[in-house]
Design goal:
187 residues, mainly beta, eleven-stranded parallel beta sheet, seven-stranded parallel beta sheet, globular
């Protein structure tokens, strides 16, 4: 089932998906906080756009700002741009992903902005052209769950810059990031 609605010129989309494959991406950008956006049990692929741009239509699987999004059992893979891009926001922006895969894209997940946070529970980031996870500009990323793995990415597994934080809530013996082309953890 897909629920879509429009409010004036604002676009509020997606209550629920079941076993679906989506070719093309989703964008959530607004000047007010969009809430209750949930993706479940689906695959998103977007092969269009410019992989190095951070503008609408850049080949991202999901691009968002000023929104709260939940992902459950979602595979974002084969995207020309970022599988998930959470850009600098003017309002609190959150993403919570559980048992998701971010793979075979330019970058697995890029999170940026001081009002932006991401929580990944038992997610896998692998075989991306550049990095598995990027945290920029005072963003906060939390990694949870024994099934979490960041591996086989072209450059770094985890890349944090400009005061971006990646907090790993796993035992010290857990092999969270491994076999990446550059560094497993780079700041």
């Amino acid at each position: 089932m897909l629920t879509m609605c429009t409010e004036g010129s604002y676009f509020c989309i997606l209550k629920y998906f079941v076993q679906m494959e989506m070719r093309g991406g989703f964008g959530f950008e607004s000047f007010r906080n969009l809430e209750n956006i949930t993706f479940k049990k689906m695959t998103v692929t977007n092969t269009g756009g410019n992989p190095n741009g951070i503008t609408r239509g850049n080949g991202c699987g999901i691009q968002m700002s000023n929104a709260s999004v939940e992902l459950v059992d979602v595979a974002l893979k084969g995207c020309r741009g970022f599988a998930l891009s959470v850009t600098t926001s003017t309002l609190e922006t959150t993403v919570v992903a559980t048992r998701c895969e971010f793979a075979n894209s330019h970058c697995g997940a890029r999170i940026e902005g001081s009002l932006t946070s991401a929580k990944f529970n038992n997610c896998v980031f692998h075989d991306n052209e550049v990095d598995g996870i990027q945290g920029f500009t005072r963003s906060t990323i939390h990694l949870h769950g024994e099934a979490t793995a960041i591996h086989s990415n072209g450059e770094d597994g985890i890349y944090a810059a400009r005061s971006g934080k990646v907090l790993i809530h796993l035992p010290s013996h857990h092999n969270t990031s491994y076999n990446n082309g550059g560094k497993d953890r780079n700041t």
